[in-house]
C-alpha cells in the first residue's frame, strides 16, 4: 500500500499539497487510460502513457541529480505541460479540436526550456569560484539551450512517427509545392500551384489496390508543422532569454517574478 501511495504522490521535496494533489489526479488518469489500452492492444498509446508517467518524474530526478530546489510554480507548469501534450494533445486529440493547442504548447516549451537552461548556468555562475559570466552570455546560453531542446523534441516526434506509427508531426493540406524531383532532366525547381486534388494509390497486404483521395490540395507530411513548432519555440526562448538577461543585469532587484522559474541551490546535508 505504501508503494502505491509513494507512486501517486511522488514529487519534489519542496512541492506543496496542491501540487501533490495535481500529481495524484494526473497519474490516476494516466494509469486508468493505460489499463484500458492494454486489452485493446493499442501498444503505441500504451507506450505514450508509460512515457507520460516516466516524464512526471523529471522534476524529482532533476532536483536530486543537480541538488537544486524547483519552485512550485515551475513544477506545476512542467507537469501540466506534460499532461497537456501527451494525454490531452495526443491521446485525446486536443491537437485536432483546438488548432492553437500545439502552437501554445511549443511556445511554452521554448519558454520553460530556456528557464531551465538559464537556471543551470545562473546557479553555476553564482556558486562556482572563478566564474563571472556576463548577463549577455547567460542570455545566449539560455537561448541556445532552449532551441537545442526544441530540436531534440522534433527528433523524437519524427522517430515516433517513423518507427512508432504515430502522427506527432501533424500533416497539413497545401495548395502548392516546389520540387526538383518532378523535373528530373534539367534538375530545376518545378512549381505546381493551385492543387485541387491528390490521389494516392497503394496496396493492401493481399495485393489489392487502394485509392486514397485528398481533396483541396496536396498532403504535406510534417515539415510545415516542424518548422512552425521550432519558430514558436524560438519566440518562447527569446522571451525568457530577455527576461533572464534583465534579471541578471539588475542583480535580481527588478523582475523578481522570474524567480518563480529559477531553481535554487539545494540544501547540503
How would you describe this structure to a colleague?
The chain has helices spanning 2-9, 17-37, 43-55, 58-66, 72-91, 94-97, 101-127, 135-163, 223-249; strands spanning 68-69, 172-174, 177-179, 190-192, 197-203, 209-215, 218-220, 264-265. It is mostly helical. It has three domains: 1-92, no CATH class; 107-169 and 238-269, no CATH class; 172-220, no CATH class. Strands 1-8 form a two-stranded antiparallel sheet. Helix 7 (101-127) packs parallel to helix 9 and helix 8 (135-163) runs antiparallel to helix 9. The longest helix is centred in the middle third of the chain and has 29 residues, at 135-163. The relative contact order is 0.13.
Helices and strands, with pairings:
Layout: H1 2-9, H2 17-37, H3 43-55, H4 58-66, E1 68-69, H5 72-91, H6 94-97, H7 101-127, H8 135-163, E2 172-174, E3 177-179, E4 190-192, E5 197-203, E6 209-215, E7 218-220, H9 223-249, E8 264-265
Antiparallel strand pairs: 1-8, 2-7, 3-4, 5-6
Radius of gyration: 23 Å
- Name the poorly predicted regions: none
Could you give the order of the helices and strands?
HHHHEHHHHEEEEEEHE
Helix run count: 9
Describe the structure concisely for a colleague.
The chain is mainly alpha-helical. Helix content is 59%, strand content 11%. The radius of gyration is 23 Å and the shape is flat.
